[in-house]
Automatic annotation (TrEMBL):
This is Acyltransferase. Residues 28-364 form the Acyltransferase domain. Residues 443-671 form the SGNH domain. GO terms for biological process: lipopolysaccharide biosynthetic process. Pfam families: Acyl_transf_3 (PF01757), SGNH (PF19040). GO terms for molecular function: acyltransferase activity, transferring groups other than amino-acyl groups; hydrolase activity. The chain crosses the membrane at residues 31-47, 53-73, 94-113, 183-202, 254-273, 285-304, 316-336, 348-367, 379-399.
Length: 678
């Protein structure tokens, strides 16, 4: 999530003499900004404390739309509006803090990140520098995309939406003003169209709806509508309307304004505690924070909540540093998480937030304010634009080079390779591995091998899909069996299982019916077993056996890690004074998810517990249990690559095998599968 960049037009001490032409300073809006940024920070650092804190971004959207439109309309009415002046102010407002954070992330990433991680960071710096982060993240969304908590600049997506709004909005208002077209009806119609796109798309295209400026623009436009309604020209245009006269008369009452401000605050509080990230958002749920924000702004600075709470000195202080505070907090949290792969402790999270506040204050005082105040405006704008351009060029070079893997030895380069495209192709993503949003009707014909050899069915989740390439190699080399792949994201091979993937139950039912139709020789059940309750597995095995299948195999879980083995290896190499290449085996007691893992929601995700449980189920149900972990691990640790001289990574992330890992594991268990591997 990100934060709006718009600051109230004039700070408590007037920034420039020219600012007198713009709207007056409202301390309560800084206080409202403080509520928004604190909500987002709490959500990111302590998500279980404030599950709906991410709606702070929506609050900022409304504030931005209101303030920017108010400034544009006021200067249009005064005859002082120019496009050059508008963008000069935006550049001096946004770029000082943004360039500082982008440059800091690049420097830190160069010294601490793997090549692929650094290349991804460079890609996001480019997106942030060109204000298209929302489109970049939209294109990356997918099951095997890098986890969001590992993207230091994930939070710039909404800054992209705002800047895209600022490209179009001033020109639209200026053109409407010059053509003497009533602005309020146009603003309302555009806002309604955007809201309609949001409501239609949230269920069918949730990712696009979340990131698209077309479906999020209404949140800024609702603030713009209030600005139009309360501007001099807007007031004059509808002052003859008797309903408007009634509303303005009623709103003149201090008690009514205070009541409106209380209702607005309650809307926002309700949104923060009621909305969760599992709900379809924005959709209708975004109305609570946006309408609440509009009510608070419309109530005016003299309303009780605005005067007492929002205009208090602590709230104003936080509001003034809100933009750099938001820019700093997410990268710091992300980099801190890389140092605590087992989970960031509360004390560290609090420390990150304190550090964010300190850096935000320093950025505001010594970087932002000097660029926003004083003379030599053109020079400052030029410096900022050149600085951003340099950051973009450096990022482009890093991205083109693949993250400059030459920074470390070749064996470390290979051990830390992250080939997502190759990985997706190996597991036949969206062809025979159904991603979220796909159902079994989309399995391609090639998911079932043709021929006369005995048919083996691979059934399971992404963990099962990850071993497909290894089984494929066995089948091709031995010629002893054909292979069918029916795998689905977050969907273990258990009939009746319902989880985060809404299509899972239907996909599993489709698979058992397909098994009845095909009557294969062998069905292999595989998955990340530690992630699921397994009480449905015995009945699933019985249903498979009832179809006439000769053999049911339960494939045990692969060793899982607290952090990606490639990152562990890189950290061991970089922290070693002699830069010695780490062993091919990692200490599983120290780095493995199977030891010391926390038990949550009744599930014990430790590898050895899952192994014991699955082995017992297999014995009782007449299935064959084969352990992958036994082939990967010994008393010295578990393999992350094949040998001391081989740098080919076995893991894409903390649990999914790469094709190299899948090939090794399947070769290792080939005798237990009854295969004579060449």
């Amino acid at each position: 999530m990100t934060i709006s960049e718009t600051q109230t037009a004039i700070s408590p001490s007037k920034i420039t003499s020219g600012s007198i032409r713009h709207i007056g300073y409202r301390p309560d809006i800084d206080g409202l900004r403080a509520i928004a940024v604190l909500a987002v920070l709490i959500f990111h650092a302590f998500p279980t404390v404030l599950r709906g804190g991410f709606v702070g971004v929506d609050i900022f959207f409304v504030i931005s739309g209101y303030l920017i439109s108010k400034v544009i309309l006021t200067t249009l009415y005064q005859g002082t509006f120019t496009i050059a002046d508008f963008y000069s102010r935006r550049i001096r407002r946004i770029l000082p803090a943004l360039v500082t954070v982008l440059a800091s992330c690049l420097v830190f990433g160069w010294n601490t990140m793997l090549a692929d991680d650094l290349a991804l960071l460079a890609k996001h710096v480019l997106g942030g520098a060109s204000f298209v982060s929302n489109f970049v993240l939209w294109s990356e969304a997918g099951y095997f995309d890098k986890a969001s908590e590992l993207k230091p600049l994930l939070h710039l997506w909404s800054l992209g939406i705002e800047e895209q709004f600022y490209v179009v909005w001033p020109l639209l208002l200026w053109a409407g003003w010059r053509l003497r077209i009533p602005l309020l009806p146009i603003v309302v119609l555009i806002g309604l169209a955007s809201f309609a796109m949001n409501m239609v798309g949230i269920h069918e295209h949730p990712t696009a709806t979340f990131y698209s400026p077309l479906s999020r623009g209404w949140e800024l436009i609702i603030g713009a509508a209030l600005a139009c309604l309360t501007s001099d020209s807007g007031t004059k245009a509808i002052s003859h309307n008797r309903y408007f006269a009634v509303v303005t008369s009623t709103f003149g009452s201090a008690k009514v304004r205070s009541a409106v401000s209380i209702i607005g605050l309650l809307f926002i509080v309700y949104a923060m505690f009621r909305i969760k990230d599992t709900l379809p958002f924005p959709g209708k749920w975004a109305l609570f924070p946006t309408v609440g924000t509009i009510l608070l702004i419309a109530a005016g600075s003299s309303a009780w909540v605005n005067r007492v709470l929002l205009s208090s000195r602590p709230m104003i202080a936080v509001g003034l540093i809100s933009f750099p505070l938001y820019l700093w907090h997410w990268p710091l949290l992300t980099f801190a998480r890389s140092s605590y792969p087992e989970g960031l402790p509360w004390s560290a999270r609090l420390g990150v937030l304190v550090a964010s506040a300190v850096l935000a204050t320093l950025t505001y005082l010594y970087i932002e304010k000097p660029f926003r105040s004083g003379s030599r405006t053109r020079f400052k704008v030029s410096v900022l634009c050149v600085s951003m351009f340099v950051a973009a060029v450096i990022s482009g070079c890093i991205l083109k080079s693949g993250g400059f893997a030459s920074r470390y030895p070749e064996i470390i380069q290979r051990a830390t390779e992250y080939n997502l495209d190759g990985y997706r192709a190996a597991l036949r993503n969206r062809v025979c591995f159904m991603d979220i949003g796909q159902d079994a009707s989309q399995y391609a014909p090639e998911c079932i091998d043709k021929g006369t050899a005995p048919l083996w069915v691979l059934w399971g989740d992404s963990g099962a899909a990850a071993i497909y390439s290894g089984l494929r190699g066995l089948a091709d080399r031995s010629g002893q069996f054909r292979l069918a792949q029916f795998t689905s994201s977050a969907c273990p091979p258990m009939i009746g299982y319902e989880g985060g993937n809404l299509a899972c139950s239907r996909n599993n039912q489709w698979t058992i019916e397909k098994v009845r139709e095909l009557v294969p020789d062998t069905v292999i059940l595989a998955g990340m077993w530690g992630e699921y309750a397994r009480e449905l597995l015995p009945s699933t095995i019985k249903q498979i056996q009832s179809t006439g299948v000769r053999r049911v195999i339960i494939l045990g879980p692969s060793p899982a890690w607290k952090d990606t083995p490639s990152r562990i290896a890189f950290n061991l190499w970089s922290s070693d004074p002699l830069h010695r290449v780490p062993s091919e085996r990692l200490d599983y007691a120290k780095y493995g998810m199977g030891h010391g893992a926390q038990v949550q929601e009744g599930l014990d995700s430790r590898t050895e517990i899952a192994e014991q449980n699955l082995r017992s189920m297999a014995q009782q149900s007449g299935a064959l249990y084969i352990s992958i972990a036994e082939k990967m691990c010994n008393e010295d640790g578990c393999l992350m690559r094949e040998s001391a001289s081989s740098g080919e990574a076995f893991y894409l992330d903390i649990v999914h095998f790469t094709p190299h890992g899948a090939s090794f594991a399947m070769k290792a268990i080939a005798p237990e599968l009854g295969i004579n591997d060449r």
